Amino acid sequence: MPTTTPESPTPAAPETLAALLHRFGDSRLKVARIKFDVALARGDDPFNMIPYLTRLGHRIGCLDDLLAINDDPEEEELHCFPVQEGIAVSMASDRMWLLFERGGEAT
Predict the structure, then answer these.
(1) DSSP character at residue 12
(2) Rounded to an integer, what distance in angstroms lies between the CA atom of residue 32 and that of residue 68?
């Protein structure tokens, strides 16, 4: 979720993917990318997030629905972060990242 600052009660813009990766010390890692619309149409993605969340009972219809994994107290591997480019997903144990980009075709 976007953060707020004491100076402004309105949400701050999310950071860029590059800034997020830098913050985690992963700026040299390659990030898999897929357009969210393409992943949704296929019903799959490189991390199998969409099928996984569907099996857990979550309805995935928009990009922000991916953030539901952050509310699962049993989930320790996958974490989602809103970034300017879309939603970044971290697979902690493997130090892998996936970016669900807004709109269009897979890159």
Answers:
(1) P
(2) 20
Nearest to residue 36, comparing CAs of 88, 95, 96? 88
Number of domains present in the structure of the chain: 1
- Over the range 38-52, which residues count as b (16 or more CB within 10 Å of their CB) and which as e? bbbeeeebbbebbee
Tokens 């629905």 identify what position? 65
8 domain-assigned? no
Would you give the DSSP letter of residue 14?
A: P
What digits encode the pLDDT tens for the residues 9-46? 445 779 999 999 999 999 999 999 999 999 999 999 99
Whole-structure pTM value: 0.82
